[in-house]
Amino acid sequence: MSFKRFSMRNNRQFYFYILCAICAFVSIAASSWATDSSTGKLSVYVVNYPLKYFAERIGGEHVKVVFPAPANVDPAYWLPEIKTISAYQQADLILLNGAGYAKWIYQVSLPQSKLVNTSVKFEEQYIRVKGAVSHSHGPGGQHAHEGVAFTTWIDFNLAAGQAKAIAVAFGRRRPQLKNTFEKNFADLKKDLLALDQSIKAIVSKNQNQPLIASHPVYDYFARRYGLNINSVHWEPDEIPSREQWMELQNILKHHPAQWMIWEGTPLKEPVERLKSLGINSLVYDPCGNMPQENDFLNVMHQNIENLQQAFP
Amino acid sequence: MIDSLYIAWKYISFNKIKTLTLVACITLISFLPIALQLLLAESERQLMSRAVSTPLVIGAKGSSLDLVMNTLYFGQEVPELISMASAKSVENMDLAIPIPLYTRFRARGNPIVGTTLDYFEFRRLKIAEGRQIAMLGDCVLGAKVSEKLGLKTGDSLVSSPESLFDLAGIYPLKMKIVGVLETSHTTDDLAVFVDLKTAWVIQGLGHGHQDVTRLKDPTLVYKRTESNVAATAKLYHYTEISEDNLASFHFHGDIGQYPITAVIAVPYDEKSGTILRGRYLAKEETRQIVKPGDVIDGLLQNIFRIKNVLDAVISIVALATILAIILVFALSLRLRQQEIKTIFKLGCSRMTIAWLLAAEIFIIVLISGLLCGAMIFTVDQYANDIVRMLFIR
């Protein structure tokens, strides 16, 4: 009798343990499935630093944004290694700048369904670069390698458009977080439009003054803020050649600029030589690659501060 | 019983030609309908499984069968081309994931399928060896292509010119094999996969050459003005894409206007699929959207209609053959009257004689059955390949 009672109690315990094990298994399986399918961190790869900044601001803790370009390259002309391309292929989303930025994307294979061209909504506003030499060979007829200006984000209004495209793409991938992304985007947009207003206020003091850009990357900036910019093709870390100085002299004949805008801190020698020609230098960093310190917003605030020198 | 079989076997062995004729007749008559049934069932399985797993196909208006056969089975009949803008428009509608396909070129007899990486995910194709296509000029081989051509990762494969007589045409492209796919037991095993852009390079829409604006050799420049440089035919176009010349490869014009053969559209849900189909109903629309399942179903209906005719023919022939066999046996019995009388006189009962004749028939039917079984087994083993050879390729 006592054996029977003991056995019955044992049986109940056994069923209880089985039930607990099933519950534990179901809850673990459910949580791991949920993490894998739709609530895990979105893996996002980008082609330049501004997109990384926008994506991180909008996605917050829900995204893992990777920008694998080394610090010493221009991401617009960089070609990733096979290993890096494979990493891009594995991402949940690949954010592109559009406007022909990062030519390497036309030379590699990326999954079309994961690509998000952040500037496609305003592609009719792209600036075509004039002056490309056309060429012809074979049956294809004449064609030119003319490009499109790609530094879209330095027009902060366009930058806000790109940020919106990112928020929409994130919302599609994680519909349950759509409101969070929209709220984060609204905050970012506010910051970007504040920058926009600051520049407008600064340049309005003397909008028509001629400026020289050391590199032809300020097309969208010039158009948005109505600036009178002419470009040469100088690198901040190189001493310009004799031909480049002559080109500048020719430009100055019809474009008497007193300020040159540099992408990065220029070498001392060209700065002094420019000064002797009555041209001052200021840095306006488009911030295509990751800054060594600070973030996109800080760099832009510094740019605005630098710009103020030219518009006292 | 054993004695009857022994005597019957001796008789059959002696009358070889008569036995062979009877065995061949019975074997063929039983083999044909079963083999036909097997092949049709396999073709239905192959055609339908791939068709059903492909929700929608968009292509130029025209033969929907050509479109589906080219898109699903990479058939040699190339449908009228559409532009890449068709894939873009599906993307913009935001109702389905578009997977563009450009199945026009061949390499050593195997179709080169230009597509995007989404295709591999859609068809669940896995890399068995090497890596996925990553750069312009890379290709991955279907398992059977790799096996048939004896090619592996690291080797190269040259695209075949579309016409042997097109001497001024596009140079073939030497593609780098970067991976081999796992066997999928579908047409994907028989294809060479490249990125869509590589397919356009094969066509000559994208190319790599020296920077013509910096040419020093005067024999390479036909005419130079301030705004244009015309190169001579001597200008070398790269026929292989390497790390050194990759940057020189470029595409001219609007990529949206570049050709593709079809777009596989994978709708987000049933409703999106229905809306998407509705968008291609306008009369002035130059493209068609088809459900491959419906198209292949129509094809199978025709095949089964033909099968019914074949069945009827086979039944009549079978009946005629059976009658002929009965006649052969009857005539044989008449011819063997003397022989049967002798056996009877030797002391065999009528029953023993009947057993002898039955044993002869049994042995002939048994040999035919074994032969037929072996042939059916062979057909069953190779049904997959036979169907591809007969119906798909």
Based on the model shown, name its key terms.
heterodimer, A: 312 residues, alpha/beta, Rossmann fold, 2 domains, 4-stranded parallel β-sheet, 9 helices, 10 strands, 46% helix, globular, B: 393 residues, alpha+beta, 10-stranded mixed β-sheet, two-stranded antiparallel sheet, 49% helix, 19% strand
Short description, anyone?
The complex is a heterodimer of chains A (312) and B (393). Chain A is an alpha/beta fold.
Describe the protein in words.
The complex is a heterodimer of chains A (312) and B (393). With 312 residues, chain A is of the alpha/beta class. Helix content of chain A is 46%, strand content 12%. Chain A folds into two domains: 42-130 and 148-196, Rossmann fold (3-Layer(aba) Sandwich), CATH 3.40.50.1980; 205-308, 3-Layer(aba) Sandwich (Rossmann fold), CATH 3.40.50. Chain A has nine helices and ten strands. In chain A, the strands form three sheets. A four-stranded parallel sheet of chain A has the order 2-1-3-4, sandwiched between helices. In chain A, helix 2 (49-59) crosses helix 5 (178-203). Chain B is 49% helix and 19% strand. Chain B has helices spanning 2-14, 16-52, 64-73, 85-93, 118-122, 143-149, 196-203, 270-278, 292-335, 337-345, 350-392, and strands at residues 56-60, 82-83, 96-107, 110-115, 127-130, 138-141, 156-158, 174-181, 192-195, 206-208, 221-224, 228-231, 249-251, 259-260, 262-267, 287-290. In chain B, strands 1, 3, 4, 5, 6, 7, 8, 9, 15 and 16 form a ten-stranded mixed sheet that branches. The longest helix of chain B has 44 residues, at 292-335. Chain B is elongated. The chains are: A alpha/beta (312), B alpha+beta (393). Chain A binds chain B through residues 79, 82, 85-86, 89, 103, 106-113, 133-140, 142-143, 145, and chain B through 87, 91, 97-100, 116-118, 121, 131-136, 138, 168, 195, 197, 204, 209, 212-213, 226-233, 235, 237, 246-247, 249-253.
